[in-house]
Write a structure and sequence with these properties.
Helix content is 77%, strand content 0%. The chain is mainly α.
Amino acid sequence: MSAARSPASGGYALAVATLGSAVIVIPAALRAATGGAGLAMAWLALWGSAALMIAPVAGACRVARPLSPFAFSLPLGLALALGPLMVFARVLKTATHHRPLGGATFALVAAILVLSATAFSARVIAWSRGRGGALCKLPHGLAALGLALGAVLALPALSSALRSSLFDGVLGVAVVAAAAWAPEKWALGRVGWVLWLVVVAAGLGLGLSAPTTKSALAEHAPVLLGLSGWLRP
């Protein structure tokens, strides 16, 4: 069994993701502090809440490596479909006044577009494999282009709260990627599970003990609060 698939490797990802979560929740904790929560308790609660979701995903991704090249076809398809979906959503919003009909239409078109873009992505990945030079990086270039186009079209339509949530989500994805693919330079594998359990327990048990803290986090950092909002009464 390779090191990438060993339990220690999964523990390393847990440790890196847990430590990374402590950093990415700082902006959200500052926002929650403006809503009446104590900064220290908001940070602790968000640290545990973010680690609860992010660290297991990072550990699973690291243990599952190496992923098939075709596993990239779905995220690439989503990236390529993002821009056209933003345009279609704007057109639908101005042309349709019946909300249920508009929602159903968007869901149907989105499903067809994402499936088609995923199938196209799989063909692009298959074609680019074994190519030399810049052609082998074509899927990555298309993903970057699709995300950039989608961001340009989506950000002006988002409210301040939604932009903050999107920012928190991007930071979470970045931590997952870093923990899942970063080289193992420190002996963190054996302490990963312990560190994760302690942080999650402290975040849910202490950080979310005050109702005002949970209320402020639900309003200002719903993405990072995540499952903790359901698990902690």
